[in-house]
């Protein structure tokens, strides 16, 4: 710091920071020079330097605060700067809420389009079409003359085998058309719009840069193709992709504010909040969204981001509620209200559902990753359009005959969560009527006492069992195709089917054996003791927990979804059990598994580093490698520096006192170095290939006929992170995780020995786990 006293007098505060630690807006020591455009930015597929970004933001903030004491204009600028974060959150919430509402309405309409069309206006979906009709009966509330199936339109009759085949063929035709449009649009305009997007967003939030992943084309195409993919009847949901859509909105809106446009770390705080917004609009669960962002996707989540996420999620949920996409004043399709209390003994079947969820989660992850790896390594990956069409055709052909697989995932879950009331015409409520003498008035509100199952219910159970097998198999091959595909709804559907089957089984057991010691005392004849819909809800939570390994956020999302506050304990028991069971087979959730499959440089915070290696074992150069490429603080010419940069592909170079002493001075980034040299050649008189490059405080004396030196101290980071060669690797990994470092220099008694990058650590961890270290694709 004493050395920098001269800098302090000569420069403003921002340049002082650049002099002290090289992290501020970079300046040449020549005071006439402005900060260079491009210095301090990053290339595609690189990791950001969190420490440098945070320092840059702190300097900017300090400068604004200092100026605000001098004039009213500066004070107003300071207030607007402080307010800009909240304004950005408001805009993100409004935009995401509006898009989600549009996606919900369009998906609902196109899904119904597969079965028929509305005569009074083709833009009405089935439900809206029959709203104004006076001819609907309660038993057949979805039958009205204004809505005609394709068979009625084409053949004039809705009965008989010919009409059935006609409807079947039209269903397959529309499904294939929607899927073909979706995959073609993704392929032609935005390859990044496929999949769920959550693994990539986790990677981006950890500091990686994937240009275009959150761009405007990705947003437009993802929004359109998400509607098409969901409507095609494929086994996928729109919840994961909505997180990606919200993050695209946030990234695009960040460009309106300099503070977020120019600082990668600040932008990632906004993206964390946007992830919360995505879940908030997907499930109508604002608090669950904030917890999801905190537990599942975010890498760095300060308190300020928590408050902003909360605000943005609130705005988004309010916007969606104003649009009212389902026409029932609810934010989700499957809102239910149960009233019957649950009994302690029911915890046993709830835990059983937790075990099922954990087993299904572990099995699904293994099968899906094996299938995706096969897609990557075989010829299957070369034909994405063909693959989508084949899977869609298969899904449509098998799904149509069974009414539970024909309906959309959200409708199926809604049906399964539903509690049978007196007036329900659903097949799942096909119980035998009970004579009034048997029923006492113990049923609460509109709920009914337990009754014996009738023909309708047995048929429904068979169809559900077949639907369960079908969903389990088809979801494995669907997730990861080249269309937008979420995993929340299919996983919840699998769990809800299993839960409903178990719930009906328990209900019949309690009805026929209410004198067993298990049911004695709490389940008297004629009472409503067991609610099958509640089992479906617990099963849905257990399966989603098994696949994603969410716990806290999942329980909150589920009770925000269903309004069932008294069922928090069953949900917690099932979710925790499913996490433990799934963790016994492998610690990774589906998103972490996909991150590893794609080779993204992501240091998993949950993964323990158990090996006893030291930094000297992991650093480069190794014993057999050539020496470390370094720059000296003086004595190298522009030509020599350029030759060194050209001959290597490293993203930065340590600067040492001299080649002999190897005492460390600082670290300089390759991109900053090239931009500065290029700029100096254009703007500074006399800089040629023979000019000396100087990183020292004072330029050394040079001969009168020599060209003037090029002084680059401004771009030098004078406080790079260093560890000694005997630092244990587990501590080094912790430093990388907690500070979000790109690289760390290794010294021995103050002399530079080598360098460790994030990629070296990931390769080392892959080697320890007997995986291919070259699977980490990106530099």
From TrEMBL:
<keyword id="KW-1133">Transmembrane helix</keyword>
<feature type="transmembrane region" description="Helical">
    <location>
        <begin position="493"/>
        <end position="514"/>
    </location>
</feature>
<keyword id="KW-0813">Transport</keyword>
<dbReference type="InterPro" id="IPR000644">
    <property type="entry name" value="CBS_dom"/>
</dbReference>
<keyword id="KW-0812">Transmembrane</keyword>
<comment type="similarity">
    <text>Belongs to the chloride channel (TC 2.A.49) family.</text>
</comment>
<keyword id="KW-0967">Endosome</keyword>
<dbReference type="GO" id="GO:0010008">
    <property type="term" value="C:endosome membrane"/>
</dbReference>
<feature type="transmembrane region" description="Helical">
    <location>
        <begin position="270"/>
        <end position="294"/>
    </location>
</feature>
<feature type="transmembrane region" description="Helical">
    <location>
        <begin position="534"/>
        <end position="559"/>
    </location>
</feature>
<dbReference type="InterPro" id="IPR014743">
    <property type="entry name" value="Cl-channel_core"/>
</dbReference>
<keyword id="KW-0868">Chloride</keyword>
<feature type="domain" description="CBS">
    <location>
        <begin position="715"/>
        <end position="773"/>
    </location>
</feature>
<dbReference type="GO" id="GO:0005247">
    <property type="term" value="F:voltage-gated chloride channel activity"/>
</dbReference>
<dbReference type="Pfam" id="PF00654">
    <property type="entry name" value="Voltage_CLC"/>
</dbReference>
<feature type="transmembrane region" description="Helical">
    <location>
        <begin position="168"/>
        <end position="190"/>
    </location>
</feature>
<feature type="region of interest" description="Disordered">
    <location>
        <begin position="1"/>
        <end position="30"/>
    </location>
</feature>
<feature type="transmembrane region" description="Helical">
    <location>
        <begin position="381"/>
        <end position="400"/>
    </location>
</feature>
<keyword id="KW-0472">Membrane</keyword>
<dbReference type="GO" id="GO:0005794">
    <property type="term" value="C:Golgi apparatus"/>
</dbReference>
<feature type="transmembrane region" description="Helical">
    <location>
        <begin position="347"/>
        <end position="369"/>
    </location>
</feature>
<dbReference type="Pfam" id="PF00571">
    <property type="entry name" value="CBS"/>
</dbReference>
<dbReference type="InterPro" id="IPR046342">
    <property type="entry name" value="CBS_dom_sf"/>
</dbReference>
<dbReference type="GO" id="GO:0008021">
    <property type="term" value="C:synaptic vesicle"/>
</dbReference>
<dbReference type="GO" id="GO:0005886">
    <property type="term" value="C:plasma membrane"/>
</dbReference>
<feature type="transmembrane region" description="Helical">
    <location>
        <begin position="242"/>
        <end position="258"/>
    </location>
</feature>
<feature type="transmembrane region" description="Helical">
    <location>
        <begin position="86"/>
        <end position="107"/>
    </location>
</feature>
<dbReference type="InterPro" id="IPR001807">
    <property type="entry name" value="ClC"/>
</dbReference>
<feature type="transmembrane region" description="Helical">
    <location>
        <begin position="460"/>
        <end position="481"/>
    </location>
</feature>
<protein>
    <recommendedName>
        <fullName>Chloride channel protein</fullName>
    </recommendedName>
</protein>
<dbReference type="GO" id="GO:0005769">
    <property type="term" value="C:early endosome"/>
</dbReference>
<feature type="domain" description="CBS">
    <location>
        <begin position="619"/>
        <end position="683"/>
    </location>
</feature>
<keyword id="KW-0129">CBS domain</keyword>
<feature type="transmembrane region" description="Helical">
    <location>
        <begin position="210"/>
        <end position="230"/>
    </location>
</feature>
<keyword id="KW-0406">Ion transport</keyword>
């Amino acid at each position: 710091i004493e050395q920098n006293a001269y800098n302090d007098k000569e420069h403003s505060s921002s340049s002082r920071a650049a002099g002290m630690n090289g992290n501020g807006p970079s300046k040449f020591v020549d005071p006439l020079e402005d900060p260079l455009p491009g210095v301090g930015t990053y290339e595609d597929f690189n990791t950001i330097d969190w420490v440098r970004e945070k320092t840059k933001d702190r300097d900017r903030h300090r400068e604004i605060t200092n100026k605000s004491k001098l004039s009213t204009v500066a004070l107003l600028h300071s207030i607007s700067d402080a307010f800009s974060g909240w304004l950005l959150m408001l805009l993100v919430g409004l935009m995401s809420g509006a898009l989600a509402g549009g996606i919900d309405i369009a998906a609902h309409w196109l899904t119904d389009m597969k079965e028929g069309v509305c005569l009074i206006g083709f833009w009405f979906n089935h439900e809206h079409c029959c709203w104004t009709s006076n001819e609907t009966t309660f038993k057949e509330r979805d039958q009205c003359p204004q809505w005609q199936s394709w068979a009625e339109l084409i053949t004039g009759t809705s009965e008989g085998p010919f009409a059935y085949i006609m409807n079947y063929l039209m269903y397959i035709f529309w499904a294939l058309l929607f899927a073909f449009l979706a995959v073609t649009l993704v392929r032609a305009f935005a390859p990044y719009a496929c999949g769920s997007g959550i693994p990539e967003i986790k990677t981006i939030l950890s500091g990686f840069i994937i240009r275009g992943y959150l761009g405007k084309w990705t947003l437009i195409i993802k929004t359109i193709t998400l509607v098409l993919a969901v409507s095609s009847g494929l086994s996928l949901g729109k919840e994961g992709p909505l997180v990606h859509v919200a993050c695209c909105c946030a990234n695009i809106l960040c460009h309106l504010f300099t503070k977020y446009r120019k600082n990668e770390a600040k932008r990632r705080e906004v993206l964390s909040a946007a992830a919360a917004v995505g879940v908030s609009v997907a499930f109508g669960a604002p608090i669950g969204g904030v917890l999801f962002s905190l537990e599942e996707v975010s890498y760095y989540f300060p308190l300020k981001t928590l408050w902003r996420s909360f605000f943005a999620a609130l705005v988004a949920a309010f916007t969606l509620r104003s649009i009212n996409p389902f026409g029932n004043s609810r934010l989700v399709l499957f809102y239910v209200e149960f009233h019957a209390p649950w009994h302690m003994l029911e915890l046993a079947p709830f835990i059983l559902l937790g075990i099922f969820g954990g087993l299904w989660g572990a099995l699904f992850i293994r099968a899906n990753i094996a299938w995706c790896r096969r897609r990557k390594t075989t010829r299957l990956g070369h034909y994405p359009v063909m693959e989508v069409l084949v899977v869609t055709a298969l899904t449509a052909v098998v799904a149509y005959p069974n009414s539970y697989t024909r309906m959309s995932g959200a409708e199926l879950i809604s049906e399964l969560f539903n509690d049978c009331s007196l007036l329900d015409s659903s097949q799942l409520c096909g119980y035998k009527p009970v004579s009034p003498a048997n029923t006492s008035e113990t049923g609460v509100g509109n709920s009914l006492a337990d009754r014996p199952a009738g023909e309708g219910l047995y048929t429904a159970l068979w169809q559900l069992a077949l639907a369960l097998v079908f969903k389990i198999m088809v979801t494995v091959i669907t997730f990861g195709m080249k269309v937008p595909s979420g995993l929340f709804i299919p996983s919840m559907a699998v769990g809800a089917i299993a839960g409903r089957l178990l719930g009906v089984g328990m209900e019949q057991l309690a009805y026929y054996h209410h004198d067993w010691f298990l049911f004695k005392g709490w389940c008297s004849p004629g009472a409503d003791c067991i609610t099958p819909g509640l089992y479906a809800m617990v099963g849905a939570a257990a399966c989603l927990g098994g696949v994603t390994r969410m716990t806290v956020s999942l329980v909150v999302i589920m009770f925000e979804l269903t309004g069932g506050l008294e069922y928090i304990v069953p949900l917690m028991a099932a979710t925790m059990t499913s996490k433990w069971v799934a963790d016994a087979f492998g610690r990774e959730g589906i998103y972490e598994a996909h991150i590893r499959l794609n080779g993204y440089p992501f240091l998993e915070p949950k993964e323990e580093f158990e090996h006893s290696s030291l930094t000297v074992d992991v650093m480069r150069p190794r014993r057999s490698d050539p020496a470390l490429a370094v720059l000296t603080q003086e004595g190298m010419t522009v030509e020599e520096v350029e030759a060194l940069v050209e001959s290597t592909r490293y993203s930065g170079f340590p600067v040492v006192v001299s080649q002999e002493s190897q005492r460390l001075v600082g670290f300089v980034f390759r991109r900053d170095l090239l931009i500065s040299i290029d700029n100096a050649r254009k703007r500074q008189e006399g800089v040629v290939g023979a000019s000396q490059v100087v990183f020292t405080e004072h330029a050394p004396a040079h001969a009168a006929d020599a060209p003037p030196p090029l002084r680059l101290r401004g771009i030098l980071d004078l406080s790079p992170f260093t560890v000694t060669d005997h630092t244990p690797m587990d501590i080094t990994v912790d430093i990388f995780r907690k500070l979000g470092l790109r690289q760390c220099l290794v010294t021995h008694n103050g002399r530079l020995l080598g360098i460790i990058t994030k990629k070296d650590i990931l390769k080392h961890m892959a080697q320890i786990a007997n995986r291919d270290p070259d699977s980490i694709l990106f530099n």
